[in-house]
Amino acid sequence: MIEPTTPDPFPDLHPALDSQSAVAEANRCLFCFDAPCTAACPTHIDVPRFIRKISTGNLRGSAATILNANILGLSCSRVCPVQVLCEGACVMHRYNRKPIEIGRLQRYAMEEAPGVRPATPASSLIFKVACIGGGPASLACAAELRKHGVSVTVFDNRPLPGGLNTYGVAQYKLRPRESLKEVEMVRSMGVDFRRAEVGGTVALADLEREFDFLFVGIGLGAMERLGIPGEDLPGVLDALRFIERYKTLPDVRVGRCVIVIGGGNTAIDAANAAVRLGAQDVHLFYRRTEREMPAFSFEFDHSKVEGVRFHWLSQPVAIVEREGRAAGVRFARTSLGEPDARGRRRAVPLPNSEYEVECDMVIPALGQSRLTAALDLECSASAILIDRATGRTSNPKYYAGGDCVNGGREVVDAVADGKRAAIGILKQFGGIAHNG
Amino acid sequence: MANLATNFAGIRCPNPFWLASGPPANCGDQVMRAFDAGWGGAVWKTIGEPIVNVSSRYSSVDWNGQRMMGLNNIELITDRPLETNLREIAAVKKMYPDHAVIASLMVESKREAWHEIVRRTEDAGVDGLELNFGCPHGMSERGMGSAVGQVPEYSCMITGWVKEVARTPVLVKLTPNVTDIRSVARAARRGGADALSAINTINSITGIDLDTFIPRPNVGGLSSHGGYCGPAVKPIALNLVQQICADAEIGLPVSGIGGIGSWRDAAEFILLGCGSVQVCTAVMHYGFRIVEDMIDGLSNWMDEKGFHAIGDFRGLSLPKIAEWKHLDLNYKIVARIDRDKCIGCDLCYIACWDGAHQCIHIEGHHVPESLEAASRARVAVTPIATLDRTRDAKPETPSRRIPRVDEAACVGCNLCWLVCPVENCIRMERVETGRPPESWAQRAG
Q: How many CB pairs lie under 8 A apart between chains A and B?
């Protein structure tokens, strides 16, 4: 008997290219010298080179070109905001033409040449590195080190490695199985994965003894709290936990009417997911206006098409409780005041402007807090301080990268950080070996 | 409105566009549909002793995502009975008396065989004959086609046999697969030919299947060299046509063939001296309908240039081709880049460095490798509104990507202008050298 199947609520946002359209698109590429797309990519993937290889049918070479620069080339091809990176830098913009669809071509190369992975040397370098955290930064650092024969162990405290790539990316962009495929590739390069809470089941001091270098790729902590009454009521679930839940648990239910609070990309991901999971009304409230919204403009445009309704200049004051559950949100209207340190105008609540909106689910999405790890490293207010070129922290045994140093950027930034740190470690080791 | 009416060596037709002898002119039905579409004439697919063909027969070269830059075939002459072809020729001529029907002929190299085929096709009512001395595959192994066209004496002799009985103009179709096409053209002239057609297809192997190692087209695991045609061969055809048309000893009308698919191609062949042009591959690719724009485009261009008839511009470009030794050594042009149009692809820069004379530069870099290394060393991040001060997106090209030409070192080779993807961004402009014109011939005395 055939099982009745429900349609997938999260089909790919951008469909894959077929071979003929991939070659046609590849042939549009001008093959710029010192290409701006390559310079714009945080991992500096040689874009014209991998595209040319698609046009000649050298898909293994194309995939290898991508992976050598960016070990998470598959997930990046799906989750990168290419509009502000490679495709945004494409010279075609200045030529009144559509930029080359670099993201889709990269996905084509990665999917059509499975099994390609960077070569690892037979003999190992005689030092060991521990990567703390199993997300994109650590994976990139580990892979780069393995390419040079370093022995690497990744410590992750979650059931599945991959970090936000596994747990935090909108489903129509990347599924956990794709993320885990990349984890498996890194594992196949000889990286050891251990599930352990560093500072908990494994003591930091033990790691310091066992390993020559430690790479910190712990990401950010839980989402910031709203700091208003009713925040802990049933029916309130922050965006990251909501996304993690629907990606990993079957039959996640959303309310009929969902309120998302926040104006970032994660807020938008959560709002879109709520629509696709069956909510009838999804409202996103932001305390500033469309102009100040931190989300990428293309994400905002896409979300409107999904059916999310946007409300500006409203700041939550309290979650309304009815029968022990969240039943609405009370907002105050705001106006925009003086610009803050980053040049964004502050939202100032207006007196006597409160109003209430009914709902049966509230999803706050205010950004993530800094992880307060028991690390004795110099930090700024929001991040671990490093030397940008090498990823080295204030303690020369420690390197760091990803969200915990860059404050929460994209997967590709984490990969670039991890890769730079690996090269920094190799250089430092080489220096030590040379001097010693 | 320009008058395209053509009189080619006594063959009259409404315009100079003829179907070349080949698959599009295989039968009466095709030729009549072609005439309905606007074609001025047709050279019937070569008539002779019917042959047996193989399958497959064609292969092509694609380029940069475009189909059929060049086409190759191993098809032989007609596989239809002689009587059928003659009956259909007669029917076409009856229905289309004002259009030109030329019979392409190929029989074994015997005087009687040629006499007979000439008589029979002329009796069917053709306006002219084209002797196929050019087919480079299959038939040449049997002593026909290019086996004749590659030996001036044979070409002269068989042309002579044909002329002994022919009442209509006789064209000799030349093969490009010779060292000097003029020697065969001169031989045809000596044999009494009234006109020439050039070029027939070029010997070719188009490509090899990298999985089976069998070249294309694949006939049961084997391939054979074929004849190459289509857009890729046009420059070769133009060169050979020019050699023939510029040769005082030959002095015959030439019907141009080789990669013609548009009115622009046709105009170029006519500017080099052709009196009519023949088309095959473009019709095989897109159908008879392409002739509409060939007529329309050529007429509009002629109107624009003030030409009333084909004869007004035929051969105009011939005097503009000279031997290298007569070129002016003191004529100098240099590349100039329009900074407002430049999109920063830097293709001109790398082309000049790796493929030419190292005279296009990017500020601050001695060699391309240092430019690339600097870009790769730059730390790039995704711009995030909450983390970065908003940067204004600048649509214009950053000045560090706009190359600069060292005009003193520029040799005026044209390469940068050729590779630049943006129209009119690079212009080659004349600079005064202050020296009078002087050719190598003059300098060497």
A: 102
